[in-house]
Amino acid sequence: MPEPMTSIKVPERVRDQLNQVVADLTRERGRTVTAAEALEFLYDAHQATVHRRREAAERRLAEAAGNPEAVARAKRIFDSLSLLRQNRLDEDGT
I need a labelling partner for 22 at 20 to 30 A (CA). Which of 12, 32, 62, 93 fits? Predict the structure, then answer.
């Protein structure tokens, strides 16, 4: 059974950028790609980036044990990731 679909209103600039991503993915994959597939691709890429940044911050924190400057730097990375996530949640109204 297909998932329920919804429509979203976005500025024309965002729509045009999404259409460019659709065109690029269509060329890369050699088949038609829908806007929904492009959005899933972009979301997955974003999640992978966040995951890599978090792992890098965790490694830096582990390596920084005993070095207050390095610990502070790693904590700033964690805080920025949390702040980005919180800002996104605030914008969504949740």
Answer: 93
Let me know the angle formed at the C-alpha of 19 by 15 and 24, rounded to the nearest 5 degrees. Answer: 150
Helix (H, G, I), strand (E, B) or coil at 33: coil
DSSP helix/strand/coil, 8: coil
Q: With cut-offs at 50, 70 and 90, classify the pLDDT of residue 28.
A: very high
Angle at 40 between CA 38 and CA 41, to 5 degrees: 60
Inter-residue contact 35 to 22 (CB < 8 Å): yes
pTM for the structure as a whole? 0.63
Q: What is the largest CA-CA distance in the chain?
A: 55
Tell whether the model's pLDDT for residue 51 goes beyond 70.
yes
